[in-house]
Write a structure and sequence with these properties.
By secondary structure, the chain is an alpha/beta fold. The chain is built from 14 helices and 8 strands. Helix 10 packs parallel to helix 11.
């Protein structure tokens, strides 16, 4: 597969307004021309293993493994999945982990989870931080998640399936030799590396999580075969504090990192404008062989750790955009991951159901199952939703929304004027 020209940065003195408007005119290129096949025309699998639940930092940690149980039970009770037919049950990853992580770090993760590691070593590798404290059998649990992402990417690339979804994956903060941001191994980076090294593929990485996809970006920062595109809350206000417009790649990878930092209180309208402007434009320039997307639910207005203000309608729109783009640009090759989301009862399960129904061509029901609501609303914050798509009552006041929209349009103009698309 040939390597396309880089998305190089142009002179910042170019006319920002005309560049922005020209790119906006291309927004509907894929959505107007892409033919979405029904689920009978292509196969999708959901990667899951019960060992995913062992990825557990403890009862007081924001990342709750129960979200996997809640999400899968919603798919089951709503009749949205046939677990025997639609599930990919992965092995643990082994050699694949070393595609993106240092051997010494992998050894430290094993030791920290199996026996004992001196505190200084834990500190060195990020395993003493309260975000990612060591836990028993940590390597095995994390390797199982990586195995799901690696196996899913292989099946997508070989054509065994068209699409795959790993709800337990998307741990995009882990660095080559350090855990960070609830992430031990970077399964998203491993999946991209599998596509690059085993299939000579160009990977378009789209990160919709509220936090900057820093780990994946840094791992491929000098590699033109992976274009990383991250939409996230501005790092001035949120971990990990990176993802500014100036982060563009280095060496041969210059121009292959795209960041769109968004203002707090960004709403559905502004989010949709941004992604529909950027995603088709970068895809048209890069010409990917496969799309790898992260659909973190922590952009939702109810998320306790972040400050964007989306509803689940934005989750549906971004899933539709990526699905259409996959069929228009990559022959359907698409691997999606769940990534973040910390309102694990009210938001995460619905976001996964929205993504899965779009991926598989199943209709999204109007209402959540009564039995599911009864079980999972116990102890949850109020109000507890009864439908998959939120009502407009969740939206913020006009003043907050307008201010965020103005800021995002300025950021978007600056970002897009700098790329030779």
């Amino acid at each position: 597969m040939d390597v396309c020209a880089p998305i190089l940065l142009c002179d910042a003195s170019q006319n920002k307004g005309s560049s922005f408007l020209a790119l906006k005119s291309e927004t509907n290129k894929y959505t107007e021309t892409a033919k979405i096949m029904s689920n009978s025309d292509h196969k999708s699998l959901l990667a899951y293993h019960p060992e995913y639940l062992d990825y557990n930092f403890g009862p007081d940690h924001p990342l709750r493994p129960e979200r996997l149980t809640a999400g899968l039970e919603l798919l089951d009770q709503a009749g949205l999945i046939d677990r025997d037919r639609d599930t990919l049950v992965p092995d643990r990853a082994d050699a694949e982990i070393a595609l993106v992580h240092d051997d010494a770090y992998i050894h430290a993760v094993r030791e920290a989870g199996d026996s004992w590691l001196p505190y200084g070593m834990l500190q060195r590798y990020g395993l003493s931080h309260p975000d990612n404290p060591a836990f028993p059998a940590m390597h095995e649990a994390a390797a199982r998640v990586v195995g799901g992402s690696a196996a899913a990417m292989r099946q997508v690339m070989t054509g065994e399936i068209a699409h795959a979804f790993n709800p337990g994956g998307g741990w995009h903060h882990a660095l080559r030799a350090r855990a960070a941001g609830f992430c031990v191994y970077n399964d998203a980076a491993v999946a991209a590396a599998v596509a690059v090294h085993e299939f000579d593929a160009r990977v378009l990485y789209l990160d919709f999580d509220c936090h900057h996809g820093d780990g994946v970006q840094w791992i491929f920062y000098d590699d033109p075969r992976v274009l990383t595109v991250s939409f996230h809350e501005d790092g001035q206000y949120l971990f990990p504090g990176t993802g500014g417009l100036e982060e563009r790649g280095i060496g041969e990878g210059e121009g292959y990192a795209v960041n769109v930092p968004l203002a707090p209180f960004t709403d559905d309208s502004s989010w949709t404008e941004v992604i529909q402007t950027v995603v088709p434009a970068v895809a048209d320039s890069f010409r990917p062989d496969v799309i790898l997307s992260l659909h973190g639910a922590d952009t939702h207005v109810w998320d306790p750790l972040t400050h964007l203000s989306l509803s689940t309608e934005s989750f549906q729109r971004q899933a539709q955009l990526v699905h259409q783009l996959a069929h228009a640009a990559t022959g359907g090759r698409w691997l999606a991951m769940g990534s973040g989301g910390y309102d694990w009862r009210r938001v995460v399960p619905r976001s996964w159901a929205i993504l899965w129904t779009e991926m598989t061509g199943r209709p999204l029901p109007d209402k959540l199952p009564d039995d599911w609501i009864k079980h999972w609303s116990a102890g949850a914050p109020e109000p507890f939703p009864t439908a998959y798509l939120d009502s407009g009552a969740l939206l913020l006041g006009q003043d907050e929304s307008r201010a965020a929209t103005r800021a995002n349009r300025a950021t978007l103009a600056d970002a897009l004027s700098g790329f030779n698309l």
